[in-house]
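G., the chain you wanted modeled:
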Amino acid sequence: MKAKTHGDIDAEVDPKFQCLKSITYVSLAKLQPTLSYEKHDHQDHEEIYYIVNGNGRIKIGDEEAKFRDGDIIYIPEKTSHSITNDGDEMVEFLAFGGYTGITKE
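Predicted structure as tokens:
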């Protein structure tokens, strides 16, 4: 039996809804108004962005959506993505990366 600590949540999650089985890095990113992080992808890890402050647009694959502070965005490995600050204030977000073990084919 696995030992538990105070505050552990005992919940069954369907594997198709699981992500970030491990966290490889956490990074605080800042993006000035009118600027973008250009389209790129990660072959060996997935990411979750937590928008701390600001608003803008994110494109993941062929889909584009608006975001604002408090939003959480999932980006699978091998998926192109870009983020644009189209607001008037700095966008700040935490990027959580998780190594998937998948490499370039």
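The chain has no helices and eight strands.

Shout if anything looks off.
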